[in-house]
Design goal:
It is a single chain. The chain is of the alpha+beta class. It has 5 helices and 5 strands; from the N terminus they run H-E-E-H-E-E-E-H-H-H. It has a domain of 103 residues: Beta Polymerase, domain 2 (2-Layer Sandwich), CATH 3.30.460. It starts with 18 loop residues before the first helix and ends in a 9-residue tail after the last helix. The chain has a 5-stranded mixed sheet with strand order 1-2-5-4-3. 25% of the residues are buried.
């Protein structure tokens, strides 16, 4: 009794798109569906999870979900399947994990509450310039004496 052998079709995997191509595709996708306050953050050297985070706001839960769907659609055009999409049901904060680029789409109130931009950019900006080199905080340099009066 002989049975036919099953043929398994294999193909070499296509290389994933470069980070720059993926990032520009994500930015194109969120612009296409009119996301609000789009910010890209370079997190290389801060985390090994991804290279860039893109944070954007939607005007409603429906808009947030639509932006996430558009990001997934544009990524699939590059033959890049998302590693995960979280939060679609509530659609207050949807995360699309594309590997090297992670996209956060949020309602404005959720975005303000979690403040991801502030979390991931701490220390990136140069320190504010003090008014003088007397070692006092900037307010003291402006004339407010913060020294103990006693």
């Amino acid at each position: 009794m002989s049975s036919q052998a099953q043929v398994i079709k294999t193909s070499l995997p296509t290389p994933p798109p470069s980070v720059d191509v993926l990032l520009s595709t994500v930015l194109e996708a969120v612009a296409e569906i009119k996301a609000v306050d789009v910010v890209e953050i370079d997190v290389r050297g801060k985390t090994s999870v991804c290279d860039f985070m893109v944070i954007a706001s939607g005007t409603s839960t429906r808009h947030v979900k639509s932006i996430a769907d558009e990001v997934v659609k544009f990524a699939k055009r590059l033959d890049c399947q998302p590693l995960g999409v979280e939060g679609e049901r509530e659609a207050e904060w949807v995360l699309v994990d594309l590997g090297d680029v992670v996209v956060h789409i949020m309602l404005p109130r959720v975005r303000e509450f979690y403040a991801l931009e502030r979390l991931w950019t701490v220390g990136d900006q140069p320190p504010q310039q003090a008014g003088s080199d007397d070692g006092l905080p900037p307010a003291a340099a402006d004339g407010d004496d913060l020294r103990d009066p006693d």
